[in-house]
Amino acid sequence: HKLRADLDRAIADGAFLLHFQPIVGIGDGRTHGFEALVRWNHPTRGMVSPAEFISVAEESGLIVPLGAWVLRNAVEAAAQWRLLHPGEDVYVSVNVSARQFRGQFKGPEQSFARWVLDEIDRMGLPPASLLVEMTESLLLHDDGEVTAELAELRAAGVRIAIDDFGTGFSSLSYLRRLPVDVLKLDKSFIDTIASSAEQHAVVDMIVQLAAILQLQIVAEGIETEAERDLLVAMGCHLGQGYLFSRPLSYGDASQWLLEEA
Ligand code: G
Ligand code: G
Ligand code: MN
Ligand code: NA
């Protein structure tokens, strides 16, 4: 597999970079955090989307060092933003794959959770400046090991989000059992709230359910003012999407914060 061979060299070559998409208060547009999204600057193909290479990295195991690289760089970015804006508790949201929990971190004794907490501590960041995003399907298939480490992170103050929420048949009872703070409502729901009364009702129910369970909702992929206005009316406070901003380079994300300060 050519892509895989190229991928194996990419960390050493410094070919990965992070982009950051603002997560905003959808009513006032103010920035609460950024989702870190990895990009691969391939020597001949140019920018390759993670949609193409994350699954390959998961299969090969490269996701462990790559995920560590992503987390470390995301946390460093958050530390810089907090220096720029001492008044704003900007957080960084990082996508994490199940496979990363089975990686080796500084020796066989150390868990992924412990390693993450050490990285945050090393940067002098409060744990609440990190949000860990896990997909719903991953949590549904967990045998308890991942959930236990998420609970350890959460006990230390790191927040946990279910990414792509709504696509994995979650049940109410399952949500109450999981160590979770945030539901990232999948873009496929947002896409249809303005055109389908049924989808609108489903999202309205999810927002109410989240309030009962004391979970925060982040609506993903908001592209139009109509979508934003419907979400605000439902009582959904946070979101991200092209209406507000595309994913930005580190420099542009810093500039974005400066302009808001
Ligand atoms: O940014 P973009 O829309 O191309 O991202 C596509 C997918 O790649 C998203 O589903 C996102 O969750 C995933 N992704 C982006 N960055 C990372 C990362 O650092 N780690 C993992 N595991 N997935 C990522
Ligand atoms: O799966 P995950 O939610 O982690 O991935 C988020 C992906 O969605 C990123 O690849 C990001 O580039 C993309 N994205 C973010 N906002 C929008 C949007 O408003 N419209 C579309 N089409 N994609 C978006
Ligand atoms: Mn995500
Ligand atoms: Na998503």
From TrEMBL:
Coiled coil: none annotated. This is EAL domain-containing protein. Residues 1-261 form the EAL domain.
